Amino acid sequence: MRINLLSSFAAGILLATTICGVVYLTDDTTVEKATAKSSDKVQLTASQMKEKLESDGYVVQTKEELEKTLQAAKNTEKKPADSKEQEKAVTQVVVNVADGMTSIDVANVLFQAKLIPDAFKFTQDIEARGLQNALRPGSFTVNSEMSYDQIIGTIFTN
């Protein structure tokens, strides 16, 4: 009796799924709604599209306007060639040294920040000075104005 009850239940589920599938697949109202939406599209002119975008807060420029803006920005960024002192941007990096980090890891961080020219030579210099075991855990701030020895002195203990 239990098997009969289970197979009757399964047959009922199968029948209900089949009926729902047939109704869904043969219902043409969804197709009609989709075609009605696609045929109701309105074509806007370029000026109407620009006005609509600008009213929504977008900045709209033509290619020529963009090129003029970029050229003006480039012209204002150029410094006079006569000035002997050119400002150099200072790069400041916070180096987080965790337990287990090696001088190679620190060298890679400094190299990626463009504070040292060569990570391998930096590591060799650390080993030549005998500082490979003098790496202190913590956060250290170094910048591009610091000398090579100042960077080493900041991160490594003597």
Give a brief rundown of this model:
It is built from 7 helices and 2 strands; from the N terminus they run H-H-H-H-E-H-H-E-H.
The level-1 CATH class of one domain: Alpha Beta
Strand composition percent = 5-15%
From the helix content, strand content and strand pairing, which structural class follows?
Answer: mainly alpha
Order of helices and strands: HHHHEHHEH
Quaternary status:
single chain
CATH architecture of one domain: 2-Layer Sandwich
Bin the helical content.
55-70%
- Distance between the first and last residues' Cα: 88 Å
Rg over alpha carbons:
35 Å
Largest sheet: 2 strands, antiparallel
CATH topology of one domain: Dna Ligase, domain 1
Give the overall shape. flat
User: What is the strand tally?
Assistant: 2
List unreliable stretches of 5+ residues.
none
Give the neighbour order of strands across the main sheet.
1-2
Molecular structure report:
The structure is a single chain. The N and C termini lie far apart (88 Å). The mean pLDDT is 81. With 158 residues, this protein is mainly α. It has helices at 2-26, 29-39, 46-55, 63-77, 103-112, 119-129, 148-155, and strands at residues 92-97, 138-143. Helices cover 57% and strands 8% of the residues. α5 runs antiparallel to α6. The protein has a two-stranded antiparallel sheet. It has a domain at 92-155: Dna Ligase, domain 1 (2-Layer Sandwich).
